[in-house]
Amino acid sequence: MLHRRRQKRIILLGSTGSIGRQTLDIVRAFPQDFRIVALSGHSRPDELARQIEEFEPIAAALTNGTVEPPPGPIVRWYRGGNGAERMIREIGADIVLNGIAGAAGLLPSFAALESGKDLALANKETMVMAGEIALDLARRRRRRILPVDSEHSAVYNLLARFPGEPAEIILTASGGAFRDRPLSDLGRVTVEDALRHPTWSMGKKITVDSATMANKALEVMEACRFFGLPPRRVKVVIHPQSCVHALVRAADGALYAHMSRPDMRLPILAALTAPRVAESDFGRLDLENCRLDFSPVDPARYPLLELGYRAAEEGGALPVVFNAANEIAAAAFIEGEISFLDIERVVDGTMTLGWPNLNRSLDDVIFNDNLARRKARAVMSDIRNAR
Ligand code: NAD
Ligand code: MG
């Protein structure tokens, strides 16, 4: 692909997860172009050990302090809660790919930018919680933040070739596991049901978020930050085949679409090579055998999308609160502690408690996140006690 180019040195965060493993697939496919200099995982030392053996990084972080690093290949270990941040600051690299799930990815993103590295961002929570602060830091350090989320990667690539200011952008949503279930069933669906995603294979939390559409709500906020548009100019449409990832509408009303097979390796590769377009077959769509349907989002089925728009419009602490409450509720649903419909109740209940307008510094963000988690747990126990 990129012969005679210097290998790009990558620090890969969340290497044991879905995004992490697909990134390693790319490095495997293009060994002359990319080199993994460091890896991080949270709690699966054996898988991390296998990856270290194969990719021979200089360093590795194991961020769950209670898990022992595996025996075997020798690397510089970084352990404990801030292990990934310390590793990012100390190890030289061209780009950090952040595939950590949830708010735990926030500080590593900042460590990447602060230490002068480009940031390929799958961790949408960074943009939702602190997008403006991160973009401002990237500008000051002359570093790039490249979206890995498929919809945002699609918009980024469309805008790179786009004439003029977009009138609106449209993100597609698969509708998740319960798109075609009768609404009256949603009170008794199980975790296993929610984890059966129709088109994408992803981590557990984001798969549940696809079923509630909390994922799309986070992506609306992510898009507003990335592309500097107000929420009302970021639309969502259901598209069950997940082949069109996003569309941009021009001032004259024409729509420009970005299409590929639903394969996350394509946006990961695009982020790692931007602004160049690499030769690969990952996303090749067979147009003759593909059918495209679009329909509106039913607010009764996906109330979390509306709450996400409210958070995006009101701003201040609310995007952080939405994300924190949803993380608490989705984790509790995955653990079997609350029902599927309780997820929305917890997020709504937490958002309506009244929140400050202040979310200007990273300290504000962390304060709001901690407080929102405490309050979401209280809302959740009220809901459970009321049964
Ligand atoms: P996953 O659950 O499969 O993997 C998460 C990774 O993060 C693992 O390596 C895990 O060890 C690490 N991790 C978990 N908790 C951590 C903590 N407290 N501290 C440090 N590391 C921790 O998740 P995923 O599906 O790969 O998603 C990762 C991120 O990418 C999420 O923000 C998600 O929204 C986003 N994303 C994922 C996909 C996808 O196809 N999977 C698509 C678009 C965006
Ligand atoms: Mg996405």
Describe the structure.
The structure is a single chain. With 387 residues, the chain is of the alpha/beta class. The protein folds into three domains: 140 residues, NAD(P)-binding Rossmann-like Domain (Rossmann fold, 3-Layer(aba) Sandwich); 157 residues, no CATH class; 73 residues, Rna Polymerase Sigma Factor, Chain: A (Orthogonal Bundle). Helix content is 44%, strand content 14%. The chain has 14 helices and eleven strands. The strands form two sheets. Strands 4-3-2-1-5-6-7 form a seven-stranded parallel β-sheet, with helices on both faces. The longest helix is centred in the C-terminal third of the chain and has 24 residues. The termini are far apart. The mean pLDDT is 95.
Outline the fold blueprint.
Layout: E1 8-13, H1 18-29, E2 34-41, H2 45-55, E3 59-62, E4 76-79, H3 83-90, E5 95-98, H4 106-114, E6 118-121, H5 124-141, E7 145-147, H6 150-160, E8 168-173, H7 191-194, H8 204-212, H9 214-227, E9 234-238, E10 244-249, E11 255-259, H10 265-273, H11 303-314, H12 318-334, H13 340-351, H14 362-385
Parallel strand pairs: 1-2, 1-5, 2-3, 3-4, 5-6, 6-7, 8-9
Antiparallel strand pairs: 8-10, 10-11
Helix pairs in contact: 3-4, 4-5, 5-9, 8-12, 9-11, 11-12, 11-13, 12-13, 12-14, 13-14
The structure holds nicotinamide-adenine-dinucleotide (NAD) and magnesium ion (MG).
Nicotinamide-adenine-dinucleotide binds at residues 14-20, 41-43, 63, 99-101, 104, 122-125, 149, 200, 202-203, 206, 264.
